[in-house]
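A protein record pairs a chain with a discrete description of its three-dimensional fold. The following entry can be read in just this way:
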Amino acid sequence: MNNRKIFFKVLPVVLMLIICVTGIYFKVSRPLGCDEGKSVSSNMIRTKKLMPVGAAVGIHIQTDGLMVLGTADISTVSGEKVSPAKNLVKSGDYIVAVNGKKVSNTAQMEEILNASGEKTVELTVLRDDQSLEIRINPAKTGENAYKAGIWIRDDTQGIGTLSFIDEKNRFAALGHGITDVDTGDMIQISGGGLYPANVYAIVRGGSNQPGEMVGHILYGQTKKFAMIKDNTSEGIYGTLSENCVYAYDEKNALNVGLKEEMHIGEASIRCQIDGVIDDYDVWISGIDFNGSNKNKDFVIEVKDKRLLDATGGIVQGMSGSPVIQDNKIVGVVTHVFLNNAGKGYGIFIEKMLEREMAVFGEE
């Protein structure tokens, strides 16, 4: 038996890269002295130019070790029900080694367990940034087959939107982190990549049910066009491969618009519908200038009839679509309102750039 859970209900189905939320009212108020005391990083961000993209891309990440989803009872060869790992490992743990041997996929762990037989095995587990050594006794489930009774995951994939490219051909996408669908925890990654995605249908949202992009990822080493470096609460970051079709082009780059430059009024989002990247009219209807709600700094309302007719508004997979106001990139789409697909949230672009600087060691 393979203990690995299948991430998608039906493949290909897109990863829920937009978290659905109910609406929250924003009071539009600017903090006192919002232009005072700018840091060096803020001044760097103010002068930065970015190339907004808005392309639907395939995202594949490898976990940093084997992510524990939970434990389970298993049947031994004698018919007994046992749970070797119960109360020893817990959801959110990462198994990084078994008997001192590094593991990065389920097959490696199964091989070590089977080779160990009835002997006690030692798991090296990361929990809350601490390393633990946990000893378990695998159960014999068949001829030369032993199981630990642990549900684990070693990778995740889905479709999201490529947000922007900077002058060093570094990218950002999504505007929020990728969390595990079962545990809700942010996934710690060892790497990953971006691939072309074929979006062949868009399911419109219904009552309290968001819509979604449906498609599949075009895998293959020759198709991989970017390496993912980190998965963070402000999105995923990495670098483009050489000769990538999305390489930075200053002619298509825009200045950065800081939060104090934003205002209630017209704007646009850039996203890919029916294979075409285009800009669609939206209205920024609320701004939290204090940025106190993580990835929900401002509210957008879709006004473009083309987008409303095609998708009903914002759908899963559009997370990361750049938001442009006054010919400046001011943020990206992060969430859709669960009870109103025509409305969504965005994150300030400066938050994403501050995180980018940290990811690449430029603080």
